Amino acid sequence: MDTRISPSLEPSLNTVTPAVAPSTDGIVLREMRETDLEAALSLSQAVHWPHRLADWQFAFGLGRGLVAERDGGVVGCALSWNWGSSHATLGLVIVDPKCQGRRIGFRLVQALLAELGERSVLLHATAEGRGLYERLGFVRAGEVRQHQGQAPSAPLVALDAGWRLRPSDHADAEALIELDAAARGMPRAALMRELLAAADTVVLDHEGQRRGFAMLRRFGRGLIIGPVVAPDALGAKALIAHLVGVSAGKFVRLDIDFDSGLTEWLEDLGLMRVDNPTAMVRGPALVATPGVRGFVLVTQALG
């Protein structure tokens, strides 16, 4: 997979961590390799996550990970993604159900955090994992609602005069990268460039100024909408309704910021809530720029 990431811009992506000596229970931690992705896929299937091999390839191509081995087999994994020198996200933490209860997840996350240093680290925790992350210094920063279902023929949302939706083009790239950074509180240029190459993107335009955007791409059981960035809920609804409409009849998922107020509207569209992970941060809180907001995540792992 061509990730188009310059090692000079993301120096930590190619850092190789040697295998850690086996613990008393025979667990060895080592650097994740591309050849481990099939095993990672099997782990996600064992815990009923919808990821395809292509989703693992996309995530791994942007970051790095560790695996836990026992008797030559992969029994756990965790990935992290560095965004500049001050921020990171952490996710795809999975332990084989047959090996849970041995603190394998704790060891994987602890090892990744040691390499992330003083960065602000964002993750989205399941109810089962929240206690683990609290013990590692994470605090609650919000809630996420996962909505999904067969996309309806959603009615379009009317915008005020001077506002319109339009397809993105190459000239939009840098502005959308800046909008994403302002909305998320951390720079993610490498991620955004990959998404722009892979997704269908629509731009919210106000009198020639780019004020928001939304992306639609393949993921999991069908399609995923995200990220969605807009100045307000009306703009976010207009972007989402457009992409839901063009996906009518297909399986669609969105991971939204619960505080966005979109939950009831999405359920009215028939996209029901199926999960509610907790957003958690270790280190300084992420601060968005006033006037722009992230309404929908890229994925729960990437934030």
Q: List the helices and strands in order.
A: EHHEEEHEHEEHHEEEHEHEEE
What characterizes the major β-sheet?
14 strands, mixed
Coarse morphology: globular
If you average the pLDDT, what whole number results?
Answer: 92
**Strand tally:** 14
Give the number of helices: 8
Helical content stands at 25-40%
The CATH architecture name of the largest domain reads: 3-Layer(aba) Sandwich
Q: How many domains make up the 3D coordinates?
A: 2
Our estimate of the beta-strand percent is 25-35%
CATH superfamily of the largest domain: Gcn5-related N-acetyltransferase (GNAT)
Describe the protein.
The protein has 303 residues and is α+β, with helices and mostly antiparallel strands. It has two domains: 11-118, Gcn5-related N-acetyltransferase (GNAT) (Aminopeptidase, 3-Layer(aba) Sandwich), CATH 3.40.630; 146-296, Aminopeptidase. Helices cover 27% and strands 33% of the residues. It is built from eight helices and 14 strands. The protein is globular and about 65 Å long. The protein starts with 27 loop residues before the first strand and ends in a 7-residue tail after the last strand.
Topology:
Layout: E1 28-31, H1 37-46, H2 53-62, E2 64-70, E3 73-83, E4 87-95, H3 104-116, E5 120-125, H4 130-135, E6 139-150, E7 163-167, H5 173-184, H6 189-198, E8 200-206, E9 209-219, E10 222-230, H7 233-246, E11 251-257, H8 263-268, E12 272-275, E13 278-282, E14 293-296
Helix pairs in contact: 1-2, 5-6
List key phrases describing it.
alpha+beta; Aminopeptidase; 14-stranded mixed beta sheet; 33% strand; disordered N terminus
